[in-house]
């Protein structure tokens, strides 16, 4: 069983509609749709926005559905200089940029008393996602890089450049690293896929509304392509 998580309805609705033999299981206020997609056994769920929702959702996938891999799909703000709206970031790893225990000698982003704070995506899934994206989305570019997550919508240049300089972030969003941490603790392979809907700057809110649908079209095509090739 493969778990597929999106924070918002629009990030998973097209995938749920394409499922076959699906049934719904509700847990912790989330609807988990189990069935087949591209002849693969999958469970697709809308987690809700933010790190707590995402971590809880991932743990339910581990405990109740015994998933063997997790794909987190959605949109994000672009950070890396060459990334354009509509392009896709495939996670090399993920970190929570809003974790700050520096008063105790930790670096910003480091989670106290954990073995790591930079959670690495599965190398086979990275390779598959990159190859697939180049094939199914030839009209855009895809990049393998770091996803930085926090309970903040990034919409100013000062914070954007901080995330680039401090974390070498390729995109910023609000859930991925929480899924990555939960998957890491449960020893579940994962990948985070993010279509760029804005540039995480002063124009971010307006750009997001305008370009979200186009970004989701690319990410849905990628997820379906990955499942088709697994």
UniProtKB/TrEMBL annotation:
CDD domains, per the entry: MTAN (cd09008)
Recorded E.C. number(s)?
3.2.2.9
Which GO CC terms are listed, alphabetically?
A: cytosol
What sequence ranges are listed for the domain Nucleoside phosphorylase? 2-226
Q: Could you list this entry's UniProt keywords, alphabetically sorted.
A: Amino-acid biosynthesis, Glycosidase, Hydrolase, Methionine biosynthesis
Q: Which SUPFAM superfamilies match?
A: Purine and uridine phosphorylases
* First-tier enzyme category under EC: hydrolase
**GO annotations under biological process?**
L-methionine salvage from methylthioadenosine; L-methionine salvage from S-adenosylmethionine; nucleoside catabolic process
- Taxonomically, the superkingdom here is Bacteria
Q: In which pathway does it act?
A: Amino-acid biosynthesis; L-methionine biosynthesis via salvage pathway; S-methyl-5-thio-alpha-D-ribose 1-phosphate from S-methyl-5'-thioadenosine (hydrolase route): step 1/2
GO molecular-function terms, A-Z: adenosylhomocysteine nucleosidase activity; methylthioadenosine nucleosidase activity
Q: Which InterPro entries match?
A: MTA_SAH_Nsdase, Nucleoside_phosphorylase_d, Nucleoside_phosphorylase_sf
PANTHER family with a match to the protein in the record = 5'-METHYLTHIOADENOSINE/S-ADENOSYLHOMOCYSTEINE NUCLEOSIDASE, 5'-METHYLTHIOADENOSINE_S-ADENOSYLHOMOCYSTEINE NUCLEOSIDASE
Q: What is this protein called?
A: adenosylhomocysteine nucleosidase
This protein's species is Anaerostipes hadrus
């Amino acid at each position: 069983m493969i778990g597929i998580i999106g924070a918002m309805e629009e990030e998973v609705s097209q995938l749920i509609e394409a499922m076959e033999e699906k049934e719904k299981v509700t847990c912790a206020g989330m609807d988990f749709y189990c069935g087949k997609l591209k002849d693969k056994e999958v469970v697709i769920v809308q987690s809700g926005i933010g790190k707590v929702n995402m971590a809880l959702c991932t743990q339910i996938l581990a405990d109740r559905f015994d998933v063997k891999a997790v794909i987190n799909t959605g949109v994000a703000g672009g950070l890396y200089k060459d990334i354009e709206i509509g392009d896709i970031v495939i996670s090399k790893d993920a970190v929570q940029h809003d974790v700050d225990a520096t008063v105790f000698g930790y670096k910003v982003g480091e989670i106290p008393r954990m073995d790591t704070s930079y959670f690495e995506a599965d190398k086979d899934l990275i390779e598959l996602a990159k190859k697939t994206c180049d094939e199914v989305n030839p009209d855009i570019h895809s990049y393998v890089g770091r996803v930085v997550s926090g309970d903040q919508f990034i919409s100013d240049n000062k914070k954007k450049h901080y995330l680039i300089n401090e974390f070498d972030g390729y995109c910023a969003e609000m859930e991925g690293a929480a899924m990555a941490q939960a998957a890491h603790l449960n020893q579940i392979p994962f990948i985070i896929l993010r279509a760029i809907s804005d540039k995480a700057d002063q124009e971010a809110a307006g750009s997001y509304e305008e370009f979200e649908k186009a970004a989701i079209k690319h990410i849905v095509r990628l997820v379906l392509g990955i499942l088709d090739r697994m």
